Amino acid sequence: MMKLSCKDIDSEEDCHFEATGNTTKEVASKMMKHAKEAHADKLEAMGMSDADLMKMFESKVHA
């Protein structure tokens, strides 16, 4: 099982969401959906494209 939490992205984040799945892409997609719903302001401030965000999320997924 692969996973990625908001704390994996930003250690100072107070969100306890954790995306899980069988593949890196599945986990990153779940994180993208959550981030767009719960952290839209932070994503906008980062100024990254969806493709760049997915690459970043995929790089941080772990077992």
Task: Describe the structure using short key phrases.
63 residues; alpha+beta; two-stranded antiparallel ribbon; 4 helices; 2 strands
List the helices and strands and how they pair.
Elements: E1 2-5, H1 6-9, E2 18-21, H2 24-38, H3 40-46, H4 50-60
Helix pairs in contact: 2-4
What kind of sheet is the major sheet? 2 strands, antiparallel
User: What is the β-strand count?
Assistant: 2
Describe the strand arrangement of the main beta sheet, using strand numbers. Answer: 1-2
**Helix coverage percent:** 55-70%
The structure class reads alpha+beta
Mean pLDDT equals 97
Distance between the termini: 6 Å
Cα shape: globular
What sequence of helices (H) and strands (E) makes up the elements? EHEHHH
Strand content: 5-15%
Number of helices: 4
Radius of gyration: 11 Å
Q: Write down the domain tally.
A: 1
Low-confidence stretches: none
How would you portray this structure in words?
The chain is an alpha+beta fold and about 60 residues long. It has one domain. It has helices spanning about 5-10, 25-40, 40-45, 50-60, and strands at about 1-5, 20. The chain has a two-stranded antiparallel ribbon with strand order 1-2. The longest helix has 15 residues, at about 25-40. The radius of gyration is 11 Å and the shape is globular. The model has no long low-confidence stretch (mean pLDDT about 95).
Task: Describe the structure concisely.
This protein is α+β, with helices and mostly antiparallel strands and 63 residues long.
